[in-house]
Structures are given as structure tokens and as C-alpha cells.
Structure to design on (368 residues):
């Protein structure tokens, strides 16, 4: 039995928070706005938040119904001048474990050139970078066991449907094509949605970064995750202990210390957020086949300490063949290994390479 979304709706109105020029790096040619979109989900999730397949392989008696409405925070960026073609396309950007929307645009002048949203905006592409439910400025359920991949994936699919049917802000037409771009656990979330939605997916293409089909249970210990309330009591002391975080961020960077700024790692540590235990324990869903019919690309860093260890990313043709098996009906499937990049493709000195790769795939998938 699959955890199909039973009924998922988004309220007609998104809430405009403020014009944000302070928190989001935006160039002369790009305007960014923070928004909150209420999303209603009604899904079946595993009773056991440690279920390795997130309910995808569970039977009805091991599932429970989750029916709730969450406020989803996001930063919407749009080029000031878009051609009619570009105006049809939006990228939905999904951060990874213990990050927020800021992964796509570090909110400080010093790291402005690490902003993918600005890079893409300068090339005519709009984006909406969201915070997962449970994370950042989105609603945080009191009980971390509500924050599972089934929940997050339902939110993303419903947001995508909303972007295709409603105006996100006054004067902005619904988008015709949506490309989901995920990082790490954000890629798992998009992958989960593609398994559930199949050919009905509202996404017109996926770019799944920093994620390969590797037994994640063996990799999870590398995170050294601890309860967020023990890690930072002043900030997270009141949280359910199943909200977790990680203090040692080195695994997210290449081992060569000259390939990233040590100041980025400090900044990363200060701006980190939380995830739920399910986020770490349910990752094996990526070994389940997705009958999605649109185009799919995976981008992984050659120095990714989780996925490219043990020479796994050296033979790209073999890697592509192995990964392709899980996307049998994808219109096209490619794997790109970004040379020099670590797990956090966006945050080291090689970031411009992956940025160009992402924009190239978006243009290819949408015919721009
Ligand atoms: C683009 O829009 C932003 C935000 O609305 C504004 O700050 C900027 O001056 C605009 N740039 C141009 C070239 O119109
Ligand atoms: C269904 O799940 C329950 C609880 O996990 C388990 O006890 C039972 O054996 C399962 N039944 C089948 C047919 O798999
Ligand atoms: C969280 O919800 C689950 C499922 O309803 C329940 O089993 C668990 O006891 C709850 N945990 C807390 C801390 O309330
Ligand atoms: C952080 O993790 C790395 C491996 O990713 C390890 O080499 C290093 O010793 C750790 N640092 C601390 C302070 O634990
Ligand atoms: C991370 O930041 C905390 C303060 O929030 C600090 O206590 C800790 O030493 C930092 N860790 C690293 C590895 O910089
Ligand atoms: C950003 O600029 C700095 C200084 O010019 C440079 O060292 C760094 O490599 C750049 N980062 C990216 C991602 O291009």
C-alpha cells in the first residue's frame, strides 16, 4: 500500500511577507520576495518514523493518517525582465538535511557569489526556494514524527500544482513548467514524490543533486547527528528530541582544505537548522523505482564524502547505467560528476561549474 496523498490542497492566497533585499542576495536584474503559502496535506505516513522506506513498502496496518495544514515559507526570485518563454518556467529549490532555503542563496554579502538563485536569475530563470515543513521559517509540528518524507513530498507536489494553477504574487501568471531541484535529502524528498505521483507528477523535470543509490543506513553515522535540543539548548531546548542536527559540517565539504573557504564552514555552522530522525532513517526510499516519465538528471561532486567515496564516481558511464535502473520510464536520464566539488555543491570554490550545469539542464528540459 502506497502513502498516496488522499486530499491535498493549497489555500487560494499566498501571504506576502515583505520585499526582501536584506536577507537575499539579489542582483540589479533580480527581485526577490519572501512568501508564506499555507499547504494542506492529508497523507498516510508510517507509524514508525524509522521505517526505512517511509511507508512505500508498508501495509495499511503500519500506516497512520496525517491531516494538517502547514505554512510553507519560501523566497521567490524573478528576473525583472523575462521573455514570455522564461516567464512560463520556475525552479522549485529544495534544500538538504539541516539546511534551509538559504543553501540556495547564503544571506551575506561575503558569500553573494555562491547564490544559485542570483546566478539563475541573471540567466533569466525564476525560482522558489522553500523551507521544509519542520525547518526554518515553515511550520514546525510539535511531534517530529509528523516530519517524514511522505509529508514533505506531498507538500512539494501540492506546491508545484499550486504554482501551475494560481498566481503566486499579484501580477505573476501561473507557471507552465516546473523543474524540481533538490540537494541531498531534498533530492530524496523530490524522489519520493516522483515514486508516489509517477506519470501524474506536476514536475516537468528533476535535477537531483548530491544523491546516489547507496545504502544510506551505512552513511547516516557519518553525519554524527544529535538531538537539536542537546546541541543548542538556547535555540532548540524545547523541541521534541527527534528533531536532530549535526555540529561537524566537514563531511559536507571536500577533504582538500584549499577547495573551500574556512569561513564558509563557520558560517554554515552558525546558520544550520534541524531535521527529523525520519529524514536520516528513511533515505532508502531512493532504491525504489520511480515510474516518472519526465526528464531526470543527477549531479554529484567527485569529492562528495557520502556518495563518491571508494571510487564510486570515477566511471560515469557505469554510474549512469546503475542509477538509470530506478528511473525506467524517464524521458531522459543523465548523471554529471562535478569535478572537485564536495557534497555541498553550492558552497565550495567549484560552485560555478554545477551552477552552469543546473541552468543547462533547466534550459534543456524546458526547451528554452
Ligand atoms: C530589479 O528589481 C529589484 C527589486 O525589485 C530592484 O532593486 C532593481 O533595481 C531592479 N533592477 C532593474 C535593472 O530594474
Ligand atoms: C503488516 O504490518 C504489520 C505491522 O508492521 C505486521 O505486523 C504485519 O505482519 C504486516 N502484514 C503483512 C501482510 O505484511
Ligand atoms: C508523536 O506521534 C506519534 C504518532 O501519533 C506517537 O506515537 C508519539 O507518541 C508522539 N510523540 C510525542 C512526543 O508526542
Ligand atoms: C569532523 O568530521 C571529520 C570527518 O568528516 C573528521 O575528520 C573530524 O575529525 C571531525 N571533527 C571534529 C571536531 O570532530
Ligand atoms: C559551531 O557553532 C557553535 C555555536 O553555535 C560553537 O559552539 C561550535 O564550536 C561551532 N563548531 C564548529 C566546528 O565551529
Ligand atoms: C567567490 O569570489 C571569491 C573571491 O573573488 C572567490 O575566491 C570564490 O571562488 C568565488 N566563489 C565562487 C563560488 O565562485
Amino acid at each position: 500500500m502506497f502513502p498516496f496523498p488522499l486530499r491535498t490542497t493549497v489555500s487560494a492566497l499566498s501571504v506576502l511577507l515583505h520585499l526582501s533585499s536584506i536577507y537575499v542576495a539579489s542582483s540589479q536584474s533580480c527581485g526577490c520576495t519572501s512568501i508564506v503559502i499555507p499547504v494542506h496535506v492529508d497523507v498516510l505516513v508510517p507509524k514508525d518514523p524509522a521505517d526505512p522506506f517511509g511507508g512505500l513498502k508498508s501495509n495499511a496496518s503500519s500506516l497512520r493518517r496525517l491531516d494538517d495544514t502547514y505554512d510553507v515559507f519560501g523566497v521567490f526570485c524573478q528576473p525583472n525582465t523575462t521573455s514570455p518563454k522564461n516567464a512560463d518556467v520556475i525552479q522549485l529549490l529544495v534544500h538538504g538535511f539541516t539546511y534551509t532555503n538559504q543553501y540556495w542563496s547564503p544571506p551575506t554579502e561575503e558569500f553573494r557569489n555562491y547564490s544559485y538563485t542570483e546566478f539563475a536569475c541573471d540567466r533569466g530563470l525564476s525560482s522558489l526556494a522553500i523551507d521544509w515543513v519542520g525547518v526554518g521559517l515553515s511550520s514546525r509540528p510539535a511531534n517530529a514524527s509528523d516530519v517524514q518524507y511522505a509529508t514533505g513530498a506531498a507538500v512539494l507536489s501540492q506546491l508545484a500544482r499550486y504554482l501551475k494553477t494560481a498566481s503566486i504574487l499579484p501580477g505573476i501568471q501561473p507557471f507552465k513548467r516546473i523543474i524540481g531541484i533538490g540537494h541531498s535529502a531534498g533530492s530524496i524528498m523530490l524522489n519520493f514524490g516522483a515514486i508516489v505521483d509517477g506519470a501524474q507528477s506536476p514536475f516537468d523535470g528533476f535535477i537531483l543533486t548530491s544523491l546516489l543509490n547507496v545504502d544510506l543506513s551505512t552513511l547516516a553515522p557519518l553525519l554524527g547527528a544529535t538531538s537539536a535540543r542537546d546541541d543548542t539548548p538556547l535555540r532548540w531546548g524545547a523541541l521534541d528530541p527527534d528533531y536532530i542536527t549535526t555540529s561537524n559540517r566537514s563531511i559536507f565539504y571536500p577533504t582538500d582544505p584549499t577547495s573551500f573557504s574556512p569561513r564558509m564552514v563557520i558560517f554554515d555552522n552558525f546558520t544550520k537548522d534541524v531535521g527529523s530522525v525520519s529524514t536520516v532513517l528513511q533515505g532508502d526510499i531512493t532504491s525504489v523505482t520511480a515510474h516518472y516519465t519526465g526528464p531526470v538528471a543527477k549531479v554529484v561532486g567527485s569529492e562528495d564524502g557520502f556518495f563518491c567515496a571508494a571510487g564510486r564516481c570515477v566511471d560515469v558511464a557505469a554510474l549512469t547505467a546503475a542509477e538509470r535502473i530506478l528511473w525506467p520510464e524517464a524521458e531522459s536520464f543523465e548523471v554529471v560528476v562535478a569535478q572537485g566539488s564536495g557534497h555541498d555543491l553550492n558552497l565550495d570554490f567549484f560552485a560555478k561549474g554545477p551552477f552552469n550545469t543546473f541552468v543547462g539542464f533547466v534550459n534543456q528540459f524546458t526547451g528554452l
